[in-house]
């Protein structure tokens, strides 16, 4: 513990609780004490909180539905549940202490098994740390609508089950399987604010869609022979659409699900709606993927500050404090790359270290810090600096902006360059004067989600002739798609499109086609 | 702030997902369940099971990068003594240096381990099977209350009086209260009579004796011989007693001609029968009777693993079974099932006796008699029907509770089993 003890120790109060048992009264009392510190002293800005107490089994349930309180039914959730359940029962994995949902009010699930100290930790971490981040970070503000998500999920759930009743489990499952396969390609990465609508709005939109269908329905069309299609400008060249057609379709389009929803020739309306649901969810979760490091860093920093302050005020006993420190330090452990349980950089560890470091730079900068961070080094306003960072950055830009040489040294970060097929990997730079900037830039790109997901775009769609769809994968640094996975996913794409689909892998630098894959829909 | 207790919410929220998942993986799960059965004992088949499946239908493909192509830069923590420009030899294979970049889902996707509950496990087997003689079984399924001793009470009808207990209490009380015995009063009376008979009457002594006698007689009157306090009655509770119990006789020929492999085939059949019975009966006993030229009841291990030499006399097994039924399994309380496995050999002159026993002794007792004849596939071709087979064939007509099938490989077992029961259910 390195927290400086301020002189303003205005008379210690009695501890809020003793022992491990929690109760509602204690939860309320502790919440009030935490709130006092989080809002009153730290000035955090949060959605109203809703705390829900759940059992271990319900926690597993929540895992199965990606942590959301409601979710449509699908076998893959059952699969995840079965896996988590098996792991948990064999003792291979412990459950999370909490799950927090980016919604308004902000829902935090806490487990009944937690000790009172853990509940306090969880409240500080989730109900204030994550909550503040959700409410203030620009990505969440821009891309998600916390007020509408719960409504939307309930709409999605009932819509999917209605479809199952109407069209059969298999038919719905087929569409959902394909949509899930393309989920990561169901994200619009560039703005144009597409909001999640509320339940009422969704219903209304559906109603309008149906009414339109009904109003334009004419039984006469049935009698028109289908073969002589009314497509006078149809080009039989089969060479793909003209540039004008492409432009009309908004090509190139990176959001495959969106493109299919709008343009796939064979899909029924309910199928389009299912695609839309999956796409909306992908979009909703996208900011979380982009801010994992910061989000956890922020929440961990907040809980650490709050619990220390509580201890200072005498609200926590020494025993609780030790219990807290024990679990805190196991959360922020970073194994070295050559240790057996190494599993990449731990976002809790690095995130927390960076937040602490920003505080240090703001309060007690060294000369090095002043040189690297002239903007805020020594400005004395640690929380203000942090809040700005939490609001206006995402992982990659945050690392690029704030990763200091000290943290790089502490973590002993080094940069590796690896080319497939070569017998050895090359150490490009390490945590030294020459290497800081390179290490930082590479780490930053590691956190750039859009650079990590395969870059796929619909580049050509022929709507009148052979109706072939062309998707391009922009290959950077020669990294191709996994062939087997790609073929199977492409098959899903073909199922949705309804006609032949081609995927070309094009080198970003040379423009050369490196590989082609094709798939035909199977009836 | 708002605290909500969700712990009492309906459980198994993801049940719908689980059902969809099992439906999806049904074929694979079924396969895994069958595999799992092979490893179990006949009597502990019916538990939940952890199954491991390799399910193609459970794959969830996505577009993802192939880690063994191209080049990439990344950052690792925990540098010891590398400096810029060092080369780190990679472990064999392509992108080994970037182990953390491999798809975390990749390895786990093919081999998928999870637990089935007991019910799910069994449901997978017996989806559309029906118990033969359903009606009888149903009747027996009803619970009839039966009095069961439940200690003693101080109150009850005279017919339930427990005399020993009552008298024991009475004796103890009489001793404690010093109730004079009739003998002591008799003695006292004699003494008094003797005193009175004496000619010079010792009046004082007579008076004293009379007083003592009076006291004794009074005491005897006050302290009853049997007091209501002493009464002890037998108490009975009426416990619903399930008559849903079944005994399963496994009869097997273990003569030298039955190889280990054929015994395994038979074992799998017995297992399935056991699972099936535990579905329908609360209690299932298994009796193993093996026979060569003579029969013996043995434990499971010996049954399947013990080796014997000698010929085959089937009727000995039937005799043994009838003996056991008589001794331990009265037909009124037990549903009796018999499964016989054999390679079809029997001594010629035993067939008549065996058939008679079967027809008159065993078939009337049993709910169901299943005979399977095991033989390796390669011996089947061109061979004429075995002695037992030919003999038993006569029984098929006219005996609804008798069925026979041939099995030559493990994969035959399950279809045969289904056929046996679903076929007879139609007939019933």
- Shape category of chain A: globular
CATH architecture level-2 label of the largest domain in chain B: 3-Layer(aba) Sandwich
Poorly predicted runs of 5 or more residues of chain A: 1-10, 228-241
Biggest beta-sheet profile of chain B: 6 strands, mixed
Number of strands of chain B: 13
Secondary structural class of chain B: alpha/beta
Radius of gyration of chain A: 27 Å
- What would the CATH topology of the largest domain in chain B be? Rossmann fold
What is the top-level CATH class of the largest domain in chain B? Answer: Alpha Beta
Instruction: Kindly report how far apart the N and C termini of chain B lie.
Output: 66 Å
Greatest contact pair? A-B, 102 and 65 residues
The number of helical segments of chain B is 14
Looking across the biggest beta sheet of chain A, what order are the strands in? 6-7-8-9
| Oligomer state of the chains in this structure | heterodimer
The number of distinct structural domains of chain B comes to 3
Mean pLDDT of chain B: 75
Side-by-side strand order of the widest sheet of chain B: 10-9-8-11-12-13
The amount of beta strand of chain B, in percent, is: 15-25%
Main β-sheet description of chain A: 4 strands, mixed
Care to describe what's here?
The complex is a heterodimer of chains A (523) and B (428). Chain A is an alpha/beta fold and 523 residues long. Among the domains of chain A are: 150 residues, no CATH class; 120 residues, no CATH class; 68 residues, no CATH class. In chain A, a hairpin with a 4-residue loop joins β2 and β3. In chain A, α18 runs antiparallel to α20. In chain B, strands 10-9-8-11-12-13 form a 6-stranded mixed sheet, with helices on both faces. A two-stranded antiparallel ribbon of chain B has the order 2-5. Helices cover 41% and strands 20% of the residues of chain B. Chain B starts with a strand and ends with a helix. The C terminus of chain B is likely disordered. In chain B, β9 and β10 form a beta hairpin. β1 of chain A pairs parallel with β1 of chain B, so a sheet runs across the interface.
């Amino acid at each position: 513990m390195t927290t400086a003890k301020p002189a303003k120790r205005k008379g210690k109060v009695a501890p809020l609780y003793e022992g491990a048992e929690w109760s509602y009264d204690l939860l309320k009392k502790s919440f009030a004490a935490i709130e006092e510190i989080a809002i009153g002293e730290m000035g955090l800005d949060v959605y109203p909180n809703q705390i829900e107490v759940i059992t271990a089994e319900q926690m597993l349930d929540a895992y199965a539905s990606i942590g959301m309180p409601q979710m449509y039914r699908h076998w893959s959730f059952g699969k995840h549940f079965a896996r988590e359940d098996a792991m948990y029962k064999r003792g291979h994995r412990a459950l999370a202490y909490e799950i927090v949902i980016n919604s308004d009010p902000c829902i935090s699930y806490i487990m009944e098994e937690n000790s009172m100290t853990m509940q306090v930790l969880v409240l500080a971490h989730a109900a204030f740390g994550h909550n503040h981040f959700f409410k203030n970070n620009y990505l969440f503000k821009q891309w998600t609508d916390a007020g509408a998500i719960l409504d939307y999920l309930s709409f999605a759930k009932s819509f999917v089950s209605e479809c199952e009743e109407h069209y059969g489990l298999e038919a719905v499952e087929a569409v959902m399987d394909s949509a899930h396969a393309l989920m990561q390609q169901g994200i619009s990465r560039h703005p144009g604010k597409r909001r999640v609508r509320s339940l009422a709005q969704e219903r209304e939109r559906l109603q309008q869609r149906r009414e339109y269908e009904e109003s334009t329905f004419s039984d006469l069309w049935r009698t028109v022979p289908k073969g002589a299609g009314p497509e006078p400008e149809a080009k039989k060249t089969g060479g793909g659409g003209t540039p004008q057609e492409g432009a009309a379709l908004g090509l190139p389009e990176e959001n495959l699900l969106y493109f299919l929803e709008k343009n796939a020739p064979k899909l029924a309306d309910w199928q389009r709606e299912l695609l839309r649901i999956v796409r909306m969810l992908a979009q909703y979760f996208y900011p979380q993927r982009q801010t994992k490091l910061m989000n956890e860093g922020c929440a961990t920093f907040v809980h650490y500050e709050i619990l220390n302050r509580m201890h200072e005020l005498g609200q926590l006993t020494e025993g609780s404090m030790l219990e807290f420190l024990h679990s805190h330090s196991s959360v922020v452990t970073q194994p070295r790359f050559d240790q057996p349980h190494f599993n990449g950089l731990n976002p809790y560890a690095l995130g927390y270290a960076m937040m602490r470091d920003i505080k240090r730079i703001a309060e007690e900068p060294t000369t090095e810090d002043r040189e690297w961070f002239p903007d805020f080094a020594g400005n004395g306003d640690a929380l203000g600096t942090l809040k700005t960072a939490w609001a206006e950055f995402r992982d990659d830009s945050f690392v690029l902006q704030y990763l200091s040489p000290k943290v790089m040294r502490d973590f002993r970060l080094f940069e590796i360059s690896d080319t497939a097929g070569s017998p050895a990997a090359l150490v490009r730079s390490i945590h030294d004067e020459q290497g800081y900037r390179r290490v930082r830039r590479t780490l930053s790109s590691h956190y750039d989600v859009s650079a990590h997901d395969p870059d796929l775009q619909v580049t050509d769609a022929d709507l009148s002739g052979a109706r072939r769809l062309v998707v391009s994968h922009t290959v950077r640094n020669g990294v191709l798609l996994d062939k087997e996975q790609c073929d199977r996913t492409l098959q899903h794409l073909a199922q949705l499109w309804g006609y032949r689909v081609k995927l070309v892998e094009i080198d970003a630098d040379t423009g050369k086609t490196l590989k082609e894959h094709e798939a035909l829909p199977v009836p | 702030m708002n605290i909500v207790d969700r712990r009492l919410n309906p459980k198994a929220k993801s049940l719908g997902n689980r059902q969809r998942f099992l439906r999806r993986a049904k074929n694979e799960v079924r396969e895994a369940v069958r595999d799992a059965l092979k490893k179990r004992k006949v009597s502990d088949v019916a538990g939940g099971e952890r199954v491991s499946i390799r399910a193609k239908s459970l794959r969830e493909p996505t577009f993802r990068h192939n880690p063994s192509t191209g080049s990439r830069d990344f950052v690792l923590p925990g540098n010891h003594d590398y400096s810029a420009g060092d080369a780190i030899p990679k472990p064999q294979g392509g992108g080994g240096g970037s182990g953390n970049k491999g798809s975390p889902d990749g390895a786990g996707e093919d081999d998928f381990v999870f637990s089935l509950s007991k019910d799910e496990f069994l449901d997978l087997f017996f989806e559309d099977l029906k118990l033969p003689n359903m009606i009888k079984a149903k009747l027996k399924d009803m619970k009839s209350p039966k009095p069961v001793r439940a200690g003693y009470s101080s109150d009850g009808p005279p017919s339930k009086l427990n005399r020993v207990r009552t008298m024991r209490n009475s004796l103890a009380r009489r001793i404690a209260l010093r109730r004079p015995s009739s003998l002591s009063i008799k003695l006292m009376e004699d003494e008094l009579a003797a005193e009175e008979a004496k000619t010079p009457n010792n009046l004082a002594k007579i008076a004293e004796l009379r007083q003592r006698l009076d006291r004794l007689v009074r005491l005897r009157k006050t302290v009853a011989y049997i007091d209501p306090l002493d009464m002890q009655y037998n108490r009975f509770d009426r416990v619903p007693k399930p008559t849903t119990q079944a005994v399963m006789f496994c009869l097997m020929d273990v003569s030298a001609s039955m190889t280990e492999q054929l015994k395994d085939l038979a074992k799998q059949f017995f297992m399935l029968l056991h699972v099936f019975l535990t579905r329908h009966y609360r209690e299932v006993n298994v009796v193993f009777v093996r026979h060569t030229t003579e029969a013996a009841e043995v434990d499971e291990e010996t049954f399947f693993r013990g080796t014997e030499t000698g010929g085959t006399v089937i009727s000995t097994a039937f005799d043994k079974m009838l003996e056991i039924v008589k001794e331990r399994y009265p037909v009124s309380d037990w549903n009796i099932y018999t499964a016989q496995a054999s390679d079809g050999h029997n001594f010629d002159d035993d067939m008549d006796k065996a058939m008679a026993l079967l027809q008159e002794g065993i078939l009337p007792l049993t709910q169901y008699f299943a005979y399977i004849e095991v033989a390796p596939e390669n011996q089947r071709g061109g061979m004429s029907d075995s002695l037992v087979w030919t003999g038993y064939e006569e029984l098929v007509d006219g005996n609804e509770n008798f069925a026979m099938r041939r099995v030559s490989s493990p994969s035959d077992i399950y279809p045969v089993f289904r056929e046996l029961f679903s076929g007879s259910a139609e007939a019933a």
